[in-house]
Amino acid sequence: MAGKSFKGNLEVLNLSDIFQSLAMNRHSGTLVVNDGKREKKIFFAEGEICLLSSGRRMRLGDLLVANDRITSEDLDLALKLQKQSRKRLGEILVEEGFCAQEDVEGIVRLQVEEELYDLFLWRKAEFEFLADQMPEDMAAESSSLTRLSINTNSLIMEALRRLDEWTLIQDAVPSTKEVFVVADVSRLGEADIPDKVRDALQETVDGKTTVMGLSERWFLSEFESCQHLAQLVKLGCVRSLSEEELADKAEASYALNDFNAAAALYGRLAEYLPDQPKILIPLADSLRRTGGEKQALHIYGELSQQLEADGRDPDRLRQCYEAILQLDPGRHDLANKIEDLDLRLASSSGSRKVLPLVLLALMVAVLGGALVFRERIKAALGSGANDADREKEVGELVDAITRAEKDAIPLIVRGQADEADKKLQEWHVAARKIWTDYGDTREFARVELPLLVATNPPGFAVYVRYGNEDRYQGTTSLQQPHVLCKYEPVESADGEAAKITVEVFDSEEANKAGKPSRASVEVPAESYSKPLSIPVYDKPISQIITDGWLDSGGIHVKELSAVFLPSREGKLRVMTLADQRLQEMPDWDGKIELGQPGDPLPAPAQAGQDLLLPVVEREGKTGVLHVRAVPGEAPTDPTLRFPTDEVVTVSPLVLAGEGEPLVIAGTLGGTLYAFSLAGEERWRANVEGAVRATCLIPGEPQRVLVMSEDQVVRAFTPRGTLAWRWDAPSPLAQREPLLLEGEVVLCLEEGRVVALDANSGELRREVFEAAPGRLPALASEGGVLYLLDRDAVLHAYQGEKELWSRTLLRKAERRPWLVVEGGRIFLACDGPELIALEHERGRTVWLGRFPQEGHVVAPMIVVDDAVVVTTNRNLIYHFQLPKKE
Fold first, then answer.
1. Which of 60, 123, 423, 500 has the fewest Cβ atoms within 10 angstroms?
2. pLDDT of residue 810
């Protein structure tokens, strides 16, 4: 679509407004942005970004090595082959099989996107949009630039999200020209930073390299580098140089002809003291000597204007003139100025006249750019209508759409979908008005309607299909869960209401490869649709049918890469996860009898290669079986090494005793047994009522916590003596107690969750209160307590402070299940759905659904990137999880 060129200053018109206008009006042309030191050119084709040209060298090979796509040896060989041919490095790497074409395209696309995001951090810069043009220098190198198709609105939303985060980062890293030194690396291990940054920290953070320089050396964007540095500053690992340190180091570097360091140090110092010739002249000279001629020329030019206006420092002014002449020999006017200075004929009054003229010129440039931009917007309205009133009405509607979109995008970026919804409704009303009432105008052909879409979990590509169009809208992410979709109005046909289809794919590449969508939803095309949240469920990759329920839970035995599950059919089921499929393990599965069909069986336990299996009855005896689990070998004959007089009711524990580990078993008759690993009974302790739950209390020494039917919680020492007891005011719930930061957290049947002091047993506090009979599920990791209540609300507590809460899919009439493993929270309520959340904010990272109706009957077993669940339909399902971000 033809448009007009315009220009201005980013202090007057921000970049997001410019990008948004270009996208909305589907303009083609080149946007040139220059801050006097750096210049970037972005080519748009009908509102989408296709090419980027910047002064930053891409260094494709180094980026592929840094991202573990190829090895250094691969790169060296490819560079040698490149010298023997005229092919591009990426072509050679793919042809030689060092990496895939997708790797090359992905790295280039990521680099381009990061450069565009960094552009949004620029504040003092000039811009010019060249409508339907590509500058000659960009056209000359276009064959070597990778062509892309980047959705401009998605880019804007991610950029605005980063700007919000930048306000938090700026306290620690106020400028990308900041220079840091290493302070104290004792807490470096706590930093969540890439290994390549951690390993190179002391070498690269050297007191003379800016954040921009560190980004180059770390192969990261400036924004990512600032994120990592902000974290390191807060941990005390690095600190920025003070003004005094910058001045001392800058002078020393300049004196030693270390011009790279001098340019970095004087550059940061110039931000503190922007108008000091004693800083700007060595800065410009250092830049000139290190390849920054354009930046140096800009500094000399601005400084010469400043010195002309001041009129009190002819020596430095002459120095500026001479430097400008060397960099730009065409400036013949400066020869006369130098002669005037030499003859000391420059009058102070004449000098004072320069500044007002310069300021006037700048004001004209800035205001002129803004006026040109406004005129361009007005011109875009067109005049298809036949009278001034209609043109005015259309203009007001277009203004309403522009205003609503501009207001909605920051709200979407901040996750305020409900607030954005109001703005999108305003947009929809105005756009429909143009569509229905102004069909004879140019705006009619440009009308687009909004739709806000999220995927649950995020991380999927969103497309909108209408008519013959199938348009990519963006990809959801944890940081940006919503995508703002746009579609052209669709007319009803054959009396049926028109609809559009929102489709969700694993990625853009998956759609291009013809793979089926993961989910799709039809919505009315004419009426406004509230923000959509589309669930994307993974299906199990394998399943096994069993003869009985597996409702006792199980364990993963790493040595055998197998899951051990006691079954209600009275046997031990053993499944291997080899080859990414759940399969019966022939030498083990069903070979060990634990009781009679229907007997409830506690979960097994493991002590090294010793497996401890509670049995209800085996040859007329009860207790805990012992079996050796040795990789590559069949199971040893199980022996009843730990016999008891009554049925074992809880999973065995292995206690660090005094001089030897002890196997602890609690029974239906209320006896607590302690055995050596060899099977020798060391002691017994009695409680009044069946043992319902046990756990270990860490410390020196460890203790055993026992919950029994007599409403008492007891702690025993490794010698079997009572350390403390707490008499509960109501029956104890059959829930495993949790140990958390010196507290024992447990549930009462009346609905309360309480915390006891782990050392004394004293009641510390009430954690949560639920309705009787609607007990929550509990889990913990990293000092955080997670509590899933029956209203399907997951709470995260640290001490008495609630960190966050999330409402999930459906309320639970049955017992909810909650497992925390490796920073991910897995839960199941009623029904066949499974959910995984990340632990920091409770955002969904995965959804699973098994095909048969039913519900989960035991805690999920999480093994690396797999999860195994058992259901009330006698089925075991195995799901593959996405890799952690």
1. 123
2. 62
- Burial, 425: exposed, middle or buried (Cβ in 10 Å; 0-12, 13-18, 19+)? middle
Residue 699 lies in a domain: no
Among residues 494, 516, 535, which one ends one of the domains? 535
Question: Sheet harboring 238-240: ordered strands across?
Answer: 206-210, 179-182, 238-240
Contact call for residues 688 and 712 (beta carbons, < 8 A): yes
Put simply, whether the predicted model's pTM sits higher than 0.70 gets the answer no
Q: Can you read off the two tokens belonging to residue 518?
A: 């993961």
Does 318 lie in the same domain as 176? yes
Residues ≥6 apart with Cβ < 8 Å to 266: 250, 254, 279, 280, 282, 283, 286
- In terms of domains, do 147 and 173 share one? no
Q: Does residue 210 have a pLDDT over 90?
A: yes
Look at the block and give the residue holding tokens 């509102």.
Answer: 47
E-state strands within 688-800 = 691-697, 703-708, 712-716, 722-727, 738-740, 743-747, 752-757, 763-769, 777-781, 784-788, 793-798
How many angstroms separate the CA atoms of 37 and 286, rounded? 13
636: left (phi over 0), alpha (psi -120 to 50) or beta: beta
Q: Tell me what percent of the chain is helix, strand and coil, each rounded to the nearest 5.
A: 35, 30, 35
Let me know if residue 76 belongs to a domain: yes
For the chain, what's the residue count?
885
Run of H or E including 182: strand 179-182
Q: Are residues 58 and 199 in the same domain?
A: no
Exposure b/e, 522-546, CB count within 10 A at least 16 = b: ebebbebbebbebbbbbebebbbeb
Instruction: Please name every residue paired with 150 in a beta bridge, in sequence order, or none if there are none.
Output: 49
Please check whether residues 287 and 259 belong to one and the same domain.
yes
Buried b (16+ CB within 10 A) or exposed e, 164-178: eebeebeebbebbbb
Q: How far apart are CA 563 and CA 350, in angstroms?
A: 89
Residue 873 has a CB neighbour count (10 Å cut-off) of: 16
Of 142, 874, 831, the closest CA to residue 547 belongs to: 874
- Within a domain: 761: no
Domain count, the chain: 4
* Band (56; pLDDT cuts 50, 70, 90): low
**The CATH number of the domain where 847 resides is what?**
2.40.128.630
Please write down the HEC assignment for all residues of 495-564.
CECCEEEEEEECCHHHHHCCCCCCEEEEEECCCCCCCEEEECCECCCEEEECCCCCCCCCEEEHHHCEEE
Q: Are residues 434 and 527 in the same domain?
A: yes
Q: Is 357 helix (H, G, I), strand (E, B) or coil?
A: helix
- Is there a single domain that holds both residue 233 and residue 140? no
3-class DSSP assignment, residue 192: coil
Asked if residue 744 belongs to a domain, the reply is: no
Quick check: 547 and 569 in contact, CB under 8 A? yes
Query: What is the chain's mean pLDDT, rounded?
Result: 84
Q: What is the CATH number of the domain that holds 313?
A: 1.25.40.10
Task: Calculate helix-pair angle for 277-289, 314-327, nearest 10 degrees.
Answer: 20
Output the CA angle 74-75-78, nearest 5 degrees.
85
Q: Shortest CA distance to 246 belongs to which of 178, 170, 337, 155?
A: 178
| 818 and 786 Cβ atoms separated by less than 8 Å | yes
Say whether 74 sits in a helix, a strand or coil.
Answer: helix
Q: How confident is the model at residue 232 (pLDDT cuts 50, 70, 90)?
A: very high
Q: Is 755 helix (H, G, I), strand (E, B) or coil?
A: strand
Q: Which domain holds residue 814?
A: 776-885
Strand partners, 707: 693, 713
Q: What three-state secondary structure class fits 875?
A: strand
Q: Would you list the DSSP string of 80-126?
A: HHHHTSS--HHHHHHHTTSS-HHHHHHHHHHHHHHHHHHHTT--S-E
% of the chain residues with pLDDT over 90 = 33
Query: pLDDT tens digits for 250-291?
Result: 998 888 888 899 999 999 999 888 888 889 999 999 998 888
- In terms of domains, do 220 and 101 share one? no
